[in-house]
Design goal:
about 20% strand, 8-stranded mixed beta sheet, 10 strands, two-stranded antiparallel sheet, globular, alpha/beta, about 325 residues, Aminopeptidase, 8 helices
């Protein structure tokens, strides 16, 4: 696609964002949550063709996110191309290029928490677009919401916001990130990963990771009585129901970096063409994103959380 046509597409999508904000506006949805919903609606629209890594749709999604990062005011790392961290990986069909979108907010400490969500999905299959509203436009929209919040609420820890590419092809973006991080890996004290957080009719959001790091349970208190944040899906004895290796947090876990993975159990639209914006549970999504933000705040207030992890490891060795 030529550059002028691409720019026109971006302008039309920006207009769609404004119109979408108006369409969801009501007495119970504030401006931040209107934008949250609008980001999901735009990223899961047909214009992005399912955001499959290495396609035009994925390139458009990466550009959209780079523009949103700039609009929010996130800082970029000098070793990256703007916010883009390019990487490639081999498949049976040859080499594929991907692009992580990375920005940060400096905290009062150089210790780093990585907040992540993958923006790719599975593209077009048999002429049907698989738009991936829940998987994982939802997690990316929450990431953007959190970045906006922390621009005006300075965190104690430095926060890296990482929109990963290539998750659906073997967690390739997250693996590329930990293999070549923009900060020393030793500075990263934990990963908060979100993958599918907008589609559950029982009000249940799972937090995976406390089996290995039970001290994290101390930070799971929220002000929303309508949402059930449940622990689980992280015991190796569960077999296929153990989610420890099911999303991008796995790459951090492989480096012994503590993690929490927020997600929902599989639903009827998982990896189906029906995973569309109109099928997410908007009230649940807003509640889930707000609860995750509260939990991140609780963790961020603990200035020496890394010491707690070290203490746990020391006690295990005794």
């Amino acid at each position: 696609m030529s550059k002028p046509m691409y720019m026109n597409t971006y302008l039309l999508l920006s207009l769609a964002l404004l119109l979408s904000c108006s369409s969801v506006k009501n007495t119970t949805v504030n401006a931040a949550d209107q934008t949250l919903l609008s980001d999901v609606e735009i990223l899961s629209s047909d214009a992005y063709e399912g955001r499959k890594t290495g396609t035009k749709g994925a390139e458009m999604a990466g550009t959209y996110l780079s523009n949103r990062f700039k609009e929010i005011g996130l800082k970029s790392f000098p070793q990256l191309k703007g916010y883009a961290q390019d990487f490639s990986f081999n498949t049976s069909k040859g080499s594929i290029g991907g692009k992580n979108i990375i920005g940060f907010i400096a905290g009062k400490s150089d210790k780093v928490m990585v907040i992540s969500a993958h923006y790719d999905h599975i593209g077009i299959i048999r002429n049907e677009i698989y738009n991936g509203a829940d998987d994982n436009a939802s997690g990316v929209a929450a990431l953007l919401k959190f970045a906006t919040y922390y621009q005006t609420h300075k965190p104690n820890h430095t926060l890296i916001f990482a929109a990963f590419d290539g998750e659906e092809m073997g967690l390739q973006g997250a693996k590329a990130f930990v293999a070549n991080p923009p900060v020393n890996l030793e500075q990263i004290i934990m990963n908060i990963n979100m993958d599918m957080i907008s589609h559950n009719d029982k009000g249940e959001l799972y937090a995976c990771g406390t089996f290995k790091y039970p001290l994290l349970k101390n930070y799971f208190y929220t002000t929303n009585p309508n949402l059930k944040v449940l622990f689980g899906h992280d015991d190796p004895a569960l077999g296929k129901d153990d989610w420890t290796r099911q999303s991008d947090h796995s790459a951090f876990n492989d480096k012994n970096i503590p993690f929490i993975y927020f997600g929902v159990e599989d639903h009827k639209d998982y990896h189906k063409a029906s995973d569309e914006y109109q099928h997410i549970n908007k009230t649940f999504f807003i509640d889930a994103s707000n609860a995750i933000l509260e939990i991140i705040n609780n963790i961020d207030k603990e200035r020496d959380i890394q010491q707690l992890f070290h203490e746990k490891q020391r006690m295990k060795k005794q």
